[in-house]
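Notebook entry, structure prediction.
Reason for the run: the old model in the group folder had no record of what sequence produced it. Starting over properly, with the input documented here first.
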Amino acid sequence: MRIGLIAPPWVPVPPPAYGGTEAVVDNLARGLAALGHEVVLFTVGESTSPVPREYLYSAAIEPIGDTVAETDHVLAGYEALAGMDVIHDHTTLGPLLAGRRAAGTPPVVATNHGPFSDRTQRIYARIAEHASVVAISHSHAASAGAVPITAVIHHGIDLDVYRPGPGDGGYLLFVGRMSPTKGVHNAVRIAKQAGWPLVMATKVREPAEVEYFEQHVMPLLGPDDAVPVEQPLARRLELFRGAHALLNPIQWREPFGLVMAEAQASGTPVLGFPNGAAPEIVDHGLTGFLSADDGELAAAVDKVGDLDRGACRRRIEAKFSLERMALDHERLYRHVLAHGSTGAAIPQGTPGGRTPAAVKRAS
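New structure, fully documented this time:
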């Protein structure tokens, strides 16, 4: 198949630092190429994903949310990818505009990487009139309301990049945005109650992030506590491998939570709140512990040593690999080409025809 991918214009693919959606798009592009498909990625010029790339803007657009520049970006994307068999759009605006295009536009698949709120439900209900909508977890799909979901496809990560480590660094780890929805203040309290140092690899650049840090997180820190630093991938990989556990006390119904899969792939158990997709990613009592209580998670820190770090790795190998994600999308695209962008939901189950092992041999 000839598959066109459209990435948001805010961050290069793959992201040099923070960027969950862009990391997923990079993994998907490489996984589909390994299956033998012709993949073209429409992104920004500074992207380095190892597939053929097209772009309008040479660098990531700032500020995030510039609607004029985003519109320009997605319109150029659909023009550049007009010869593909299918276009998979990872923006929100693009699939809306696709419905206004002339007949002959390739079938469109749209993944919602954000929550289904009252506003986004209205948007994706309109998108679903001409495109196949993908949810990224079963919890995510359950929150879609009347939006028809064609497929639920969990994210996958590159297991050659995230390698298991011993967890002997003597610290707990938080990775994510500096945001109240991520529960950074809870992570600090949990670590202090458990008596463990906390390393925070987090972005503190946007005004709301700075305000939250200064008002709610910084007052909890002592003079010996490490300050939060946004880390590049190479350093995050080291931190994952050395961490005793990842703290992920999310405060909202997070659609997926890539960091939980990344930690477990590194052999690191997850201690988090059971919100959103967390119960789909963390096997409670086996690869981590889930609780909505700070005190219970603090007490669970001492139980982490009883968990098998190898079990964490095996769970991600079985359920959240790049290869599995690529196969699920291949199956989706074939379904869309056979039944149309607004056809029936794809049946859940193992993709037919190939296995993850076959993808590895093809890569």
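Summary: Residues 322-339 form the longest helix (18 residues).
The old model has been moved to the deprecated folder.
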